[in-house]
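Module 6 notes. Inverse folding takes a fixed backbone as the condition and produces residue identities as the prediction. Think of it as a translation problem where the source language is geometry and the target language is the twenty amino acids. Below is one complete input and output pair. Work through it position by position during the lab.
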C-alpha cells in the first residue's frame, strides 16, 4: 500500500518491520556495504531510538511511528544541516494533512502542538559504496496516552485529537512532503530558507538560545540564513548559530 502511495517520489524501497532497535542505525550500518539511497525503513516498535545530543527517544510498542529515509547526497556536505530542518517542515505538513492540526515548528526541527513536543528528528551522515548518504530519521508520537509520555513536555496525536491516527497515512504524507522539499536541496536553499521562515514559530520571537558549552544568548530571532542557521538580534549584536537549544520567551505583557 505504501509503495503505491509513494509512486513518483524518490523512495523506491519501502521496508516495514514489526520491531527494530533503531531505523536510523539499521540504514547507517547497511550503508557500509550497499547503496541504501532511496530506501525507507518504518516501524511502530523502535526499542533504541536516538535523538540530538545522544538523547534517548523511546516509546511503548505501537505508540510511535518511527521512520528513516536514506538520501544520496554525494559531495554536497556544505548544506547537510538543512536536512533536519526539511524533515521538520515535512512533519508539520504531514500532521496538518492527515490530522487537521497544524503543529508549530521551533528551530531547528522541534515539532510542537500546544508547546508540547510530538516528534523528534535526527539526521546522520555516512558513506556508502556509491558516495555520501544522509539518513533522515523521525519518531512521531501517534498513540501515546498521558501516562506513557516520556516527559511532561511531550504529547501525542491521539492525546491532541482524541482519536486513533493511521500510521500508514501519516507515513505516506510525511514521505511525500519530504520528497517534494528535497527537490529544492541543495540547489535552491534560498527558497528553502524562505519556506522555513514562513512556517517557523521561532522567527519573529524573543528566545533564549543555549549554545554548546552552556553559553546563553537572549534576543529577537530575525530569520534563518541560507545555511539554515538561526539569526538573532541580541540587543543590537547579530548572533548566528548552527546548533543550540531554543526556548521561546513570552513577550512582555503576555
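Target side of the pair, the amino acids:
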Amino acid at each position: 500500500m505504501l509503495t503505491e502511495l509513494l509512486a513518483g517520489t524518490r523512495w523506491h524501497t519501502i521496508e516495514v518491520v514489526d520491531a527494530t532497535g533503531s531505523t536510523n542505525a539499521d540504514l547507517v550500518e547497511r550503508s557500509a556495504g550497499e547503496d541504501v539511497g532511496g530506501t525507507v525503513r518504518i516501524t511502530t516498535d523502535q526499542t533504541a531510538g536516538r535523538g540530538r545530543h545522544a538523547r534517548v527517544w523511546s516509546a511503548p510498542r505501537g505508540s510511535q511511528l518511527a521512520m528513516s529515509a536514506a538520501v544520496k547526497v554525494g559531495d554536497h556536505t556544505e548544506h547537510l544541516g538543512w536536512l533536519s530542518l526539511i524533515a521538520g517542515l515535512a512533519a508539520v505538513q504531514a500532521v496538518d494533512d492527515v490530522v487537521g492540526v497544524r503543529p508549530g515548528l521551533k528551530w531547528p526541527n522541534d515539532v510542537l502542538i500546544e508547546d508540547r513536543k510530538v516528534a523528534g528528528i535526527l539526521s546522520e551522515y555516512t558513506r556508502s559504496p556509491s558516495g555520501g548518504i544522509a539518513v533522515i530519521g523521525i519518531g512521531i508520537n501517534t498513540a501515546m496516552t498521558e501516562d506513557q509520555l516520556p516527559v511532561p513536555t511531550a504529547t501525542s496525536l491521539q492525546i491532541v485529537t482524541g482519536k486513533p491516527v493511521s500510521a500508514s497515512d501519516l507515513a505516506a504524507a510525511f514521505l511525500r512532503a519530504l520528497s517534494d522539499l528535497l527537490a529544492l536541496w541543495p540547489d535552491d536553499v534560498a527558497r528553502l530558507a524562505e519556506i522555513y521562515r514562513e512556517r517557523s514559530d521561532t522567527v519573529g520571537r524573543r528566545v533564549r538560545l543555549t549554545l554548546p558549552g552552556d553559553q546563553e544568548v537572549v534576543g529577537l530571532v530575525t530569520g534563518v540564513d541560507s545555511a539554515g542557521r538561526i539569526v538573532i538580534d541580541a540587543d543590537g549584536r547579530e548572533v548566528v548559530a548552527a546548533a543550540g537549544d531554543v526556548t521561546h520567551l513570552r513577550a512582555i505583557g503576555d
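Reference fact for the lab report: The chain has a mean pLDDT of 94.
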